[in-house]
Every structure is written in structure tokens, then in C-alpha cells.
Amino acid sequence: MRLRHLAALALFAPAWAQGLTPVQERGREIYLTGQSAAGREIGAVISAGSDPVPATLLPCAKCHGDDGRGRPEGGVRPADITPAALGRDAWVGARSRPAYTRPLLERAFRMGYDAGRNELDRTMPRFRMTPDDANDLLAYLEILGSDAPRGVSDDAVRINVVGAPGLVATTASIYGRRIELRHGRGADALLTIDATPDGDATLDAAGRDSIPALAVHSARAVPGRYAFVMTATNEDQVAALLSYARGKAYKPVMLTSGCRGIGNISRDALVLMTSQAAANCDPASIPRSLDRRVIVAAPSPPGPEGASTAAQAALSIVANVLAQLGRDLSSHSLLAVLERVHRFQTPGFAPVTWTANRHFGTKSVWLMTLDLQTQRLIGEPGWVEGE
Ligand code: HEC
Questions:
Q1: Nearest residue (CA) to ligand 1, atom 9
Q2: What is the rounded CA–CA span in Å between residue 271 and residue 248?
Q3: 29-61 as b/e: b if 16+ CB within 10 A
Q4: 298 lines ligand 1 (CB under 6 A)
Q5: Cα distances (Å, whole numbers) of residue 291 to 248, 271, 285, 304, 380
Q6: Neighbour-count burial of 358, counting CB atoms closer than 10 A to its CB (0-12 exposed, 13-18 middle, 19+ buried)
Q7: Which listed site, 27, 170, 277, 306, has its alpha carbon 20 to 30 Å from 233?
Q8: Cβ atoms within 10 A of the Cβ of 5, count?
Q9: Mean local confidence (pLDDT), 33-60
Q10: Ligand 1 neighbour 62 (Cβ under 6 A)
Q11: pLDDT in tens, 327-373
Q12: Contact 299/365 with Cβ under 8 angstroms?
């Protein structure tokens, strides 16, 4: 069967996109990460006669893009390999080739010949994989770029919300689709916003279900492909504290795990505490002489209000991203646009930037001053970004 016929079948998808079949899911994993669901080794041969390297280093998406449309790089343009492009006769560079069929497509990624038996450039690796893995990959290539994300219907976009009961959509609808907030973590949503103090369970689910998640907080060092975190890392806390202390008349003392020995600290100290140090510190052990000279970092303003401001910021980002994507959203374009969010500013929260290499949103940290008279943290100086 010609690929174009398969592409046409996708038009008859049900109103609520049902996500991918297990075979397509496995194929998507190979396409995006070079990893076989069964844990079998997939190899990529880059020059004739050489040993294969693991395909995890050279997954298809790395060159052809998450959506299959090709990412031009270093002068060679990886072909558009969406079903629409492969399903028709075409000129690719200086040569012409007929439309691909399923066996010809398998030959292309295994042996490096196009549908007209022209040898493909060596920048296109030759892949070694089992027939099962090839079947999975082919099943995904047949829908590549058109797999409508879950949670999107003709007239609504569904978004999961965890831990922000008061969250409301300030934009009612985008491109004719209602924004529907649903509390919980179900898999039939475009994405999940998590405002709890520890978003890691949601981030795990995000990886498992391939649904992006925007979590206010995470303790992870690396959030993962589908995981986006609003707040900064522990290192960012240290950087912000140091940047705040610079030029001050007192001697900065950084505490990152607790506050043992704080009773003996020098009289001219400016004590800088990360949120982790503060969590393990008994305020009663801090001498009065340090009044207003203990600065405590937090990833965001503490309390339910801080979390709901961050969740509201996440929702504004989502609305903005949906507005950029227009009506033709795909899960791939969604990830791509999330990774291009740049210094997105909302009231009460620090500017958020995500890139392909960094899924922590802001480098700014909420700094507070400890008032020992009242035993309270004052929200000053507020948001500070390290240098
Ligand atoms: C290192 C970059 C790279 C990777 C990884 C890669 N490709 Fe390619 N691919 C290319 C380039 C470059 C071309 C164009 C070659 C040419 O024009 O001769 C191409 C061409 C193709 C073509 C031929 C398109 C046509 O119109 O004839 C297919 C099919 C293809 N790739 C599929 C895949 C699949 C499937 C994977 C993953 C299993 C993959 N590629 C991984 C770079 C890559």
C-alpha cells in the first residue's frame, strides 16, 4: 500500500485523538531516541565498512526533526520524510525518485537507497535493527508528523491540573478550541500542569505517557524530554545568593545543607541559605545578632499563593504556546515550541525560558530576609537572578 493512502486514513481519526497504538508508540520511541522498546541494540553505520554506533547517538529525529520535516544542518539538508513527502514522486536535490512503498522505505533506512535505487548520501546512516523493530518504526513513519496530540478535539483542548484547585483559564478559547482544565493526571490530555511542592510523580507520568508536564517544582537534576520545570535549580539558588551578597559590607557565608554551628558564626557574617539548608535549620539556633542578616532562598514565593501564581504563569505560557501553534498542533510541534519559550513574563513570577538543553524555566530565585524580632521571613529582596 502506498504511504499516501495511509496518510489519508489518518483523516478518519476519532474526535478525541486516541493517542498511538502500541506498535506506533514503540516506533516513535525508536524514531525519537534510537531505543528499541525490547531493549535490543539498534546500530547506525556512518561510513561504509565501519562498525555501527548505537542509534541512541543518531536517532532519526536528530536530523529529520521531531515532525519529520528535516532540520537543515552543515549544508546537508536531511529529507522531509513525512508520509506526504515520501508518498509522492519527488526531486530530492539533483535526483528524482518515485513514491516510496513500505518495503522501499525499509530499504532506505537499512541499506541507504532511495525509492529509485539511488544511493543516499552517507550523512544518512544505515541502520541495523531486527525485523520487529523495523516494523515498529515503519508503523510510526506512516503517521509521522500527523499524530494529533491527545486531549485535542475539534472544539476543545484538555489540560490536566494537579494541586492548584483555584486555577482558572484566563483565555477561554484559542483558535476555536475551548481551554478545558481537568483535575488529575489522566493520559488523555495535551499536557499536565503540576503546582504541588514536588512535581516528580507528574514528571514520571509525563515520560511514561509522552505527555508534556509543566511542574512548578522538581528535585530532579535533569527533568527529561517531556518534563518542564518552572522554577530554578539548587545551583541557581547558590548563584542568586552570591549575586545578592556581592558588594554588601558583610562577609558572605553559604549554607547548603543545614545551619549547624550558626551560633559561632562571625559577627560580620551575611548568612546565605539555600532552601535545603533552611529546611534543615531550627530558627531558634540562630543568634539574635544576625537579625536581618540571614538570607533564605526559595524556588518560588512560599505557600499556596506562590504555587498558584506559578501555576497561573504555567497556564499563561500554555495559552501563548497554543496561540503560536495555531490549529494544526502536533505533539512534536508542541515540544518544539515549549523549548523556544523565551523570557516569558507573567505578573508575580520570574521570566521563564526553556531551551532544548535546559528544561528549568527560570534562573531567578525568591530571596527572603529573616527577621528575628518577629521570627518571620520577609519577602525581600524578592526575585534575584545569579550572574
Ligand atoms: C545524521 C543525520 C541523519 C539521521 C540520524 C537519519 N537521517 Fe535519514 N537522511 C539524512 C540525510 C542528510 C538525508 C538525505 C540524503 C540524500 O539526499 O542523499 C536522509 C534521507 C532519508 C530518507 C530518504 C528520503 C527521500 O526523499 O528519498 C529516508 C527515508 C530517511 N532519511 C529516513 C531516516 C530514518 C527512518 C532514520 C532513523 C532510523 C534516519 N533517516 C536517520 C540524515 C539522517
A1: 124
A2: 12
A3: bbbbbbbbbeeeebbbbeeeeeebeebeebbbb
A4: no
A5: 15, 10, 12, 27, 14
A6: middle
A7: 170
A8: 11
A9: 93
A10: yes
A11: 877 777 888 899 999 999 999 999 999 999 999 999 999 999 999 99
A12: yes
C-alpha cell at 295: 538570607
For residue 217 and ligand 1, the question of a CB distance below 6 A is answered with: no
Residue with the smallest CA separation from ligand 1 atom 41 is 60
CA distances from 300 to 136, 309, 313, 338, 379 (A): 43, 9, 12, 21, 11
Distance CA 332, CA 323 (A): 16
Sign of CA dihedral 238, 240, 246, 250: negative
Q: Write the residue with the smallest CA distance to atom 34 of ligand 1.
A: 60
Give me the torsion for CA of 199, 204, 209, 215, rounded to 10°. Answer: 20
Do residues 118 and 96 touch, judged by C-beta distance below 8 A?
no
Residue with cell 528575628: 372
Instruction: Cis check for the bond before 381: say yes or no (omega within 30 of 0).
Output: yes
Place of cell 524514531: 31
Cell of 26: 514503540
**11 phi, psi to nearest 5 deg:** -65, -20
Amino acid at position 212, single letter: P
- pLDDT at res. 72: 58
In the numeric block, the cell 505517557 is attached to 209
Residue whose cell numbers read 522505505: 105
Rounded to an integer, what distance in angstroms lies between the CA atom of residue 118 and that of residue 247? 66
Q: Looking at residues 47-69, what average pLDDT do you find?
A: 88
| List of residues 6+ apart from 121 with CB closer than 8 A | 76
Give me the half-sphere count of Cα atoms (radius 13 Å) on the Cβ side of residue 354.
Answer: 29
- CB neighbours of residue 116 within 10 Å: 14
